[in-house]
Design brief:
Length: 303
């Protein structure tokens, strides 16, 4: 009798073990559905379109294989926009790390009004990039821009800010100041999460100033540094809004990024296949750069 009664118990236990946690796993379903619909499907669809000649509107797509990628290698404008993209990505990342970390160190101390200053610095990050680009446009515009108005009042000549490619590039990189507040918040979180016992021990051993920062604070901010760099780099490599509003990619194609050049090819030239091919290449570039960055920081002991 004891043997017969034991069999159902074993079967019941096996059934429970098999479905243990199944209800919890259902919570992943919405995230997985969103990932498939808005990430995986567009990526696969984009790769397929990149192998065709398509105007983006008509249902007919002509398969051309790797022709769009070959054209990309010969496109001087694409090479220029690719260089610009790296300038935006690397330039804006450096600016945001230096200013963000500096502001975080300053505002981590107990100074009067530090909470208000934090809010003011972070506020631009909440504003649309299009709005910020429009604000910059009214500052640097030739005829009635605020900067040229000041120059005229001082008896100086107006500057055609957007007709010089180098000047326009500097303006676009400087626009990254909008997101300095994001880096500042990340570094502030890292500073406030430092092990204070280690800081106090270093202070008792005579460490102060630069030695304290280099040997204690900076290594302790490794996770924050990695997070901030990767997020800023991805954002810089995808720069689009500000370029369209501020310079329109001009003069010529000299200030376009790959993202804005994709827009020109798709909507202006109605060359959706070529635009999709550039989108695939941009995706690969961002994936490779971020992976190399993470691996490099990991080898340096920053991760």
């Amino acid at each position: 009798m004891s043997g017969k009664n034991a069999e159902p118990a074993v079967a019941t236990k096996s059934w429970r073990d098999r479905f243990k946690g199944a209800s919890v796993n259902l919570f992943y379903a919405p995230a997985l559905i969103m990932l498939v619909l808005f990430s995986l499907y567009p990526l696969i669809s984009g790769i397929g379109i990149s192998l065709t000649s398509w105007d983006g509107f008509n249902p007919e797509k002509i398969f051309v294989g790797l022709s769009n990628y070959v054209t990309m290698l010969r496109d001087a404008n694409f090479r220029m926009t690719l260089i610009n993209t790296f300038i935006y990505g690397i330039g804006s990342t450096i600016i945001q790390q230096v200013l963000g970390l500096g502001l975080a160190l300053l505002l981590n101390s107990k100074i009067k009004g530090c909470n208000l200053m934090r809010a003011i610095i972070y506020l631009p990050a909440l504003v649309s990039a299009v709005i910020m680009g429009t604000m910059y446009y009214f500052i640097f515009q030739y005829d009635t821009g605020a900067l040229n108005t000041i120059l005229s009042a001082l008896g100086l000549e107006k500057v055609v800010w957007f007709q010089n490619a180098t000047t326009a590039l500097i303006i676009l990189v400087m626009n990254s100041v909008q997101f300095v507040g994001t880096s500042m918040i990340i570094y502030l979180a890292g500073l406030q999460g430092l092990d204070q016992s280690v800081v106090e021990a270093a202070s008792l051993d005579g460490a102060s100033g630069w030695k304290m920062f280099w040997n204690i604070t900076l290594p302790g901010l490794a996770p924050s540094f990695t997070t901030s760099v990767v997020l800023n780099l991805i954002g810089g490599l995808k720069l689009f809004d500000v370029i369209k509003v501020l310079t329109g990619g001009g003069p010529g194609y000299s200030t376009n990024s790959v993202s804005s050049y994709i827009s020109i090819q798709y909507f202006d030239n109605q060359n959706a296949g070529y635009a999709a091919a550039m989108g695939v290449v941009l995706f690969i570039i961002i994936a490779v750069v971020t992976t190399v960055m993470n691996k490099g920081l990991d080898k340096l002991g920053w991760n």
